[in-house]
Amino acid sequence: MIKSAICEMLGIEYPVFQGGMAWIADGKLAAAVSDGGGLGIIAAGNAPAEYVRSQIRIAKSITDKPFGVNIMLLSPFADEVARTVIEEKVAVVTTGAGNPSKYIKDWLDAGIKVIPVVASVAMAKLMTRLGASAVIAEGGESGGHVGELTTMVLVPQICDATTLPVIAAGGIADGRGVAAAFMLGAQGVQMGTRFLSANECSIHPVYKEKILKATDLCTMVTGKRLGHPVRSLRTPFAREYWNAEYGGMPDDELEALATGALRLAVQEGDNEKGCFLSGQIAAMVKKEQPAAEIIKEIMEEAEPVLLGASRWVK
After folding, report:
1. Residue 32 pairs with which residues in a beta bridge?
2. If you ran DSSP here, which 8-state letter would residue 15 be given?
3. Is-contact 98 122, C-beta < 8 A?
4. CA 177, CA 154: separation in Å to the nearest integer?
5. Which DSSP letter does residue 284 get?
6. What is the pLDDT of residues 91-150, one digit of tens each?
7. Eight-class DSSP state of 225
8. Which terminal Cβ of the chain has fewer Cβ within 10 Å, N or C?
């Protein structure tokens, strides 16, 4: 069985993180992933602290395994959520869409493992100096907020730039992807879109069906003009936003156009006004199954691939 330093550090069976997907990764999904041997992660997204607290307590009521909380640093509630994870004694905090420097000392002092998402070598070096426990190198193939570099390019550069364990994210859907990440130097992987098909994932049935029927060219990136690019499925909303983005709509109106769009997708399955976040691997998701089964299946696929690859490495 594939083990790495990240397993020992966090007390998990498999080096697999579940991505912090806003309005999707709740306490129930995080607990299922953690019970399955990975690291489940509750997404704070743009939610207020009390919502995050309630999801933490739901996860605690289901599992006694470690789980984490992802804090989206662009959220107006980021300060409150940063305090909440300390009060609730969360084991791990991951961060995204920003620089978590101002929070790191307090989290470390509280005994929390801090694992930021990084999209550049400079950010990885900064997080290393500030005492992060590991970093997540997330390529632009992923769903949600994305950077410019691909996973294949980003991961080895981050591995070369830090002494911390590196978790690879973006474009990983099966054992081949896990094996590739390890060959690039990673000590674990994070998957978001892959867990949209988990039985325990409570997205609207329309959303889940879109993922299961996705094709190789099913996603697009919008939001670059505002400096916050997002990858999602090609839907009427995504196309409308693209046209508005490059059609001269003022920035404030463009921001307003996206407000609430993810919630409409997740909770209502609204095909016209909903933003269905998805990574490029959606076309590789073929069936709905328990989260624990997803993890076990992927890791069992990865082991022989890594063994075979090692025969060619001198």
Report:
1. none
2. S
3. no
4. 15
5. G
6. 999 998 889 999 999 999 999 999 999 989 999 999 999 999 999 999 999 998 888 899
7. G
8. C
Q: How far apart are CA 31 and CA 42, in angstroms?
A: 9
* Residue 149 to residue 138: CA distance in whole angstroms: 8
Kindly state the tokens that stand for 303: 């082991």
Q: What are phi and psi of 96, to 5 degrees?
A: -150, 165
- Residue 186 DSSP SS3: coil
Phi and psi (nearest 5°) for 263?
Answer: -60, -40
Contact 16, 37 (CB under 8 A): yes
DSSP states of 98-167 as a string? S--HHHHHHHHHTT-EEEEEESSHHHHHHHHHTT-S-EEEE-TTSSEE--SS-HHHHHHHHHHH-SS-EE
CB 183 within 8 A of CB 306: yes
CB 49 within 8 A of CB 77: yes
Tokens of 193: 């879109």
Amino acid, res. 61? S
* pTM strictly above 0.85: yes
Evaluated on CA atoms 92, 95, 101, 103, the torsion sign reads negative
The residue type found at 212 is L
Instruction: Check pLDDT > 70 for residue 265.
Output: yes
Buried b or exposed e, range 262-274, using 16+ CB within 10 angstroms: bbbbbbebbbeeb
d(CA 277, CA 211): 10
